[in-house]
Amino acid sequence: MVRKLAVAAMMLALPFAGQASAQEAPADDGSLTLEAIAAVVNDRPISFTDVRDRARMLLLSLGGQQPSPEQVQQITGQALEQLIDERLQLEKASEFELEISKEEIDGAVEGMAAQSGLTGADLKSQLLAAGIDPSSLEEQMRAELAWNRVMSGLYGSRIRISDNQVDDQIEQLRLAAKKTQYRISEIFLFAPDPETRTQAEEAARSIVEQLKAGADFRIAAQRLSSAPTAATGGDMGWVSASDLPPELVPAIESAAGPGLLEPITVDNGVYILYIQNKREPAEATTKVDLIRLITSDATDENLKAAMERITSCDDVQTVANTTQGLRAQPLEDINIEELGPEGKSLVESAEIGKPTDIFAVSGGLGTMYVCRREEGAEALPSREDLKNSLKGRELNMISERELRNLRRDATIIYR
User: Fold this and answer.
1) 37-156 and 284-377 share one CATH topology?
2) What is the CATH number of domain 37-156?
3) Domains of the chain: which residue ranges?
4) What are phi and psi of 296, to 5 degrees?
5) What average pLDDT is seen over the chain?
6) What one-character-per-residue DSSP string does 59-104 give?
7) d(CA 26, CA 375)
8) Fewer beta carbons within 10 Å, N or C terminal of the chain?
9) In this predicted structure, what is the pLDDT of residue 13?
10) Which InterPro entries match (predicted)?
């Protein structure tokens, strides 16, 4: 989702009492105190307490070191923009009387915690120990689930990916395979003007510190990035220099090797990039269609008996279905390199339509029938995978546009 960084970090130093931007809030003893307001979204306030809790939660959720007060302050602008987005998303969901159940929210919290090797209860305990109300996390999950459901309901069934679009994507991949490519993950902090870019640069430095301290890049991208790739943990896939914004190319091409780059400021924000790998122009490979035939029996008698009944790949599934202890597993359009040295050797030695030598598998024995072998094939994803990827990308773009429209039409007052 697109977020705009606000000038909020410096406001944390202001005293709460006596400010014009204050609201009454219940104190622990039930009396009313004044709490400073960071922003008002369509007449609904967001307090500085909300912002500080979200900033600390964002940094804690990355799995790095305990954030310092300076790091928390650096990321408050991003935290405020997230809270604004969530208010707008929940308002939109309310138009459809959409309700997200507690069970769904708990499941989302569990999923988020699992990314750091924790349970949902562990994560909530960590937040409480850091003085953060877990309801902040639950509200974030509620907004995320509601927004995804609204967007899928409104536009998911309308998106049609044509064969021509898939053909164009395949051609682009073929051209890219002839160039040096980089596997890159990104975090993008949207900041369209000089003032908010300063805020974004501070937030980027704080995020990089957390990443260097062991935070998970995928989680950071999911929680903080404004780019569409946030949904995939920031993964841009394999890209060539021509696929990237020109401002990023020098830093990527001059990198000594895989690793995290320092933040890169561009006209509309700040990038944090992680280079996972680099490959030179791809060489042709061998693609195969296989059917694995596996028996749980430790001896080879049943497997050999079944193989004697099989005359072609068309027979494998039928024989497996009618023989106790046997199962067949189709493997289509496999790059032979993915089979490992031993598997590759077995497949290369077998004739088309015939089985490989018998080999050991976990808990039994197996063979592979080679149903197709294509020498010099291009290492491209399947058409179905490309179609799903294009549909997901288009839905993300629509979601970004809808959120920008909500922001444009909303009344947002920064204090």
Assistant:
1) no
2) 1.10.4030.10
3) 37-156, 180-279, 284-377
4) -85, 0
5) 83
6) HHHTTSSPPPHHHHHHTHHHHHHHHHHHHHHHHHHHTTT----HHH
7) 73
8) C
9) 31
10) OMP_Chaperone_SurA, PPIase_dom_sf, PPIase_PpiC, SurA_N, Trigger_fact/SurA_dom_sf
